[in-house]
Amino acid sequence: KNASSPEIFPSNLILDINKKKKEQKSRKHNQMLAQLTPSERKNQVARDGCSFETVKFEQQVKNDEKGVELEEKKLNHSVALEEKKWDHGIKQE
Description:
single chain; mainly alpha; 2 helices; 85% helix; elongated
């Protein structure tokens, strides 16, 4: 390796770190749920489910918007190419 190049973390190390963070977060959440009464726990689980679905929906909307933007770019590129073909054809005549 080149001495001036930055160290790159191996992907398995990053996955392990992410897994540990998720486990810690899950453990803390479970501890918080354990301190609630059954009805409070039920309400919290319902809120968590709604939050998850909301985040999932927002991500899907964001992906859909990216898809629309990409299709718009493709269309604009195709239009520009067609215009160039026409311009080139007119110049040759």
